[in-house]
Amino acid sequence: MCPFPWPAACIPTPPRGSRSCKAHPRAVCGARDRGLCLPQARVFPRFKIPPKTPIPRTTPGGTADMPPVKHQTCLARRDGGVALLVVLMFILLLSAIVVEFSYETQVQASLTGNRRDEFEAYVAAKSAVAQGLALLESDLILPPSNTGGGSDPMRQALRQYQQRQAGQNVPQAAVGQTPPSDSIHDPWGQGLPMQPINGARMQCSIQDESGKLNLNAMLITDPNGNQQENPVMVNALRALFLAMGVEDDPTDAILDWIDTDNDARSNGAESDEYQSLESPYSCKNGPMNSIEELLLIRGITPDLYFNCNRTETGAAPIADPLRPDQANPGLADLLTVHGDPQGVVNVNTARPEVLEALITSSNGGNAAPVEEIVRRRTTEPFESLQMMQQETGCPPIPLMAPGTQPPLVSGVSAATGSASGKEPKPSPQTPQQAPLETGSDALSVSSNMFKICGDGVCNGAMVRIEAFVFRTPLEARNMQTSPQPAGRNFNARKVAGLKAFNPGSRTTASNALEAFHIVDWRVIR
């Protein structure tokens, strides 16, 4: 109830927009204006406001009223966000698949291109080796039968060789006879420069393996099958290591590596020592197949194998005008396993270190002939061994047959007390054999073993082929088809090398020998 009396506080007819008391809904409470009426009144607006829509509820029967508009909008927005996320994830997954496929395609295309370029480089390297064989064969043709025209390096080399043969430096020899000498001045010594071929490039270089010390010639076998040390070659090897400043001489270890027994020399090593290493392996006990086997032998370090700086040891090396860019050669440049079977060294192509080791070890340490040989051959090669001995004062160095003793006292043997690190093995009594009558000297002026390096390049792919070839002398080829003329100077040493690289060959007219025999073939990619 209104706390005030009706007549005094309320007006019967409430004006528009006024508030009424809850106790008198049809009257206006005048006490409100005076702050005495309770605030329990409602406003009569000018326009009627519609009531709020009730929230639909699910009936027990499973039916429901129509959902409100506001709830349908929320569900639509929620479904649209999920769909957007699914589309984005699908696009990301598809992009990853496309990128991976593109990467795999590029890799496969690159591999295919590399294989193609490598094959083209391999073909170019084989062509370079073939060019090297042609150069070596042209060296036997005096004069060349047909050099043809043109300006390619091969024909230029053949014409240059023909012009040199027509001069006074090299005497003309009979057609069909092996040239008297081989030297770096020959066309094969210059090789062929880089030149294009079928979209690739190739070049050829040739090395004389007869200008190096042959490690497989350190041991010789007598008629009874017993192995003996070749004193001339062993002393030369010891002198070489001594000049290179090697403190621990690995000569005995090398001999133990190539001999057939298991008895270690005084400074050698056999399988029991190599088996105790962290990565064990056995001793070869046989001829070496590649010069890289030196790295497996005790005492041979990579520095000694690849490059030996003799200036650090105090021994001044003899300069080689023919190889001014190779002042400190390593064992890989001085030793070989594919040289002359008897160990003969060509003075026209051998390095000064090899000549010094071979001559000083058999000449009491006198190195004067070596300097004269190097100076003399720079301008003109030696055409005969007698000419070299007369002009340089170099004494003969005979190669002894098995069972004989060297007539000269080696400087290395005098310094060390013996030619080897252990006493010779006992062998049955055999008749004393005289020194070899033909080609018995350890020095020569011709060669038959060569190393041809063919390089092929195509779009960054590089392939090298190293071919060790034995060039059959013309005398041996002619011997297959015709009898040997009487009185002809036939080189028996070349035939001995021919038998070594062509076992079982027969001298019959129906079995002609090939011009070249491939001893070893390596492909380096």
Element layout with pairings:
Elements lengths: L5 H4 E2 L16 E2 L39 H70 L14 H14 L20 H4 L1 E6 L2 E9 L4 E2 L4 E3 L5 E3 L1 H13 L7 H8 L12 H4 L27 H5 L24 H4 E2 L8 E2 L5 H9 L7 H12 L5 H8 L18 H6 L26 E2 L4 E10 L2 E11 L2 H8 L10 H10 L14 E9 L1
Helix pairs in contact: 5-10, 10-11
Please characterize this protein's 3D structure.
This protein has 525 residues and is of the alpha+beta class. The chain folds into three domains: 1-44, no CATH class; 114-210 and 448-524, 2-Layer Sandwich (Pantoate--beta-alanine Ligase, Chain: A,domain 2); 215-336 and 347-386 and 398-424 and 436-441, no CATH class. Helix content is 34%, strand content 12%. The chain contains 15 helices and 13 strands. It has helices spanning 6-9, 69-138, 153-166, 187-190, 231-243, 251-258, 271-274, 302-306, 331-334, 352-360, 368-379, 385-392, 411-416, 474-481, 492-501; strands spanning 10-11, 28-29, 192-197, 200-208, 213-214, 219-221, 227-229, 335-336, 345-346, 443-444, 449-458, 461-471, 516-524. The strands form five sheets. A five-stranded antiparallel beta sheet has the order 3-4-11-12-13. Strand 11 (449-458) and strand 12 form a beta hairpin. Helix 5 packs across helix 10 (352-360) and helix 10 (352-360) packs antiparallel against helix 11 (368-379). The longest helix has 70 residues, at 69-138. The termini are far apart. The relative contact order is 0.12.
